[in-house]
Amino acid sequence: MRVLVTGGAGFIGSAVIRHLVLEKGYEVLNIDKLTYAGTLSSLTSVEGKPSYRFLKIDICDAAAIASAMSTFRPDRVMHLAAESHVDRSILGARQFVETNILGSFTMLECARAYWQALLPLDRSRFRFLHVSTDEVYGSLGAEGAFSETTPYDPSSPYSASKAASDHLAKAWARTYGMPVIVSNCSNNYGPYHFPEKLIPLIILNALEGKPLPVYGNGTNIRDWLYVEDHARALDLIAERGRVGETYNVGGRNERSNIDVVRRICAILDDLQAIGRPHENLIQYVADRPGHDVRYAIDATKLETELGWRAKESFETGIEKTVCWYLDSEWWWAPLRKGYDGRRLGLLKAGAG
Ligand code: NAD
Ligand code: DAU
């Protein structure tokens, strides 16, 4: 099995590659532009293996993508490369439009040309998995969960750009008959998570005795999934998912942001005498513009059709994650030098 993964130097992409190379024994080509979020040090466990290759390519570069496809000859494409941080999209939407929309368009067009030229058996086995987010569905009230038929209603430039790319992917399936599948997942957490996102930012700020910024009143709810559970789900969807379908991925682990932050503080209190109680560092700050109130994923289709189950509960996953950050300064210290945790995405300078 030969799998081309885009965005493999990122948080989820690197977990997917570690799974495919180390657990499944697949051959993998990682295509990544290495933006601020791309970190090859997340892939030290596969580096040097003959079954793993890396090319530094921008997914908007059609000639480079076409050449990589014709040389590597993938059985599957798993497309994860994206600008992924909501706060960055608020003041810098252009890069999100370019990478998430035009880059996905380029990936679809290059894959279509490659797929159409395959021999019939290879053509029938080929799959293109477009990896997306639950944020395309917008915000939930107190009740209910997103299903695969929930109408799209994105709130941020990030989620709007992901929604646009999902529509392109589905159109390529319907119009050209391309074997495309779309997955929409809830919030991931775990090792190798860039420290701009809530969980790693809170862990590292707490370790350094810095304020723990909680947006608004902290009651916004996210549905957390351990990243290795997501990686297994993506492999399963690419292998056994039905062409033209969408699969929601989520671990049924809804938590308010303030509960997540308090849980991290409690784990650190147990593990580290210095800085106790870490909760004293919590600071409520100005809310994110357009902040979605609640996400929750109904993953029944993935569970019943493909037999997937999340292995980690939030309790086990968050403990593993905190321990990983305590042991992995070698990974995060260079990233903290580049991005020190300052607030991103506020419309009024100085607020919050
Ligand atoms: P990430 O920001 O950690 O990684 C993104 C990777 O894409 C980086 O390695 C970056 O260098 C690369 N990249 C960015 N622009 C590129 C370009 N133009 N060409 C080639 N490579 C480029 O993101 P992530 O959290 O790992 O998310 C991966 C995918 O999963 C994204 O499509 C995201 O929308 C989706 N997703 C993320 C989550 C989550 O909670 N993190 C949840 C659901 C879906
Ligand atoms: O739902 C899936 C999405 O989850 C993915 O598509 C995105 O790529 C991923 O970044 C994530 O988006 P969120 O905006 O939910 O994640 P973030 O970690 O930025 O924020 C999680 C929640 O915590 C959100 O309600 C905002 C809040 N927050 C975030 C930060 C960075 C804070 O309260 N304080 C913070 O400092």
Note poorly predicted spans: none
The major beta sheet can be summarized as: 7 strands, parallel
Determine the mean pLDDT: 97
Kindly estimate the percentage of residues that lie in beta strands according to DSSP: 15-25%
Instruction: Output the CATH homologous superfamily.
Output: NAD(P)-binding Rossmann-like Domain
- Give the neighbour order of strands across the main sheet: 3-2-1-4-5-6-11
Taking the alpha carbons of the first and last residues, their distance comes to: 49 Å
Structural class by helix and strand composition: alpha/beta
- Overall 3D shape: globular
Q: Can you give keywords for this protein?
A:
about 350 residues, alpha/beta, Rossmann fold, seven-stranded parallel sheet, two-stranded parallel ribbon, about 15% strand, globular, binds nicotinamide-adenine-dinucleotide, binds 2'deoxy-thymidine-5'-diphospho-alpha-D-glucose
Write the layout of secondary structure elements.
Layout: E1 2-6, H1 11-23, E2 27-32, E3 52-56, H2 62-72, E4 76-79, H3 86-91, H4 93-116, H5 120-125, E5 127-133, H6 157-176, E6 180-185, E7 188-189, H7 198-207, E8 212-215, E9 221-223, E10 225-226, H8 227-240, E11 246-249, E12 254-256, H9 257-271, E13 282-285, H10 300-306, H11 314-327, H12 329-338
Bound molecules: nicotinamide-adenine-dinucleotide and 2'deoxy-thymidine-5'-diphospho-alpha-D-glucose (DAU).
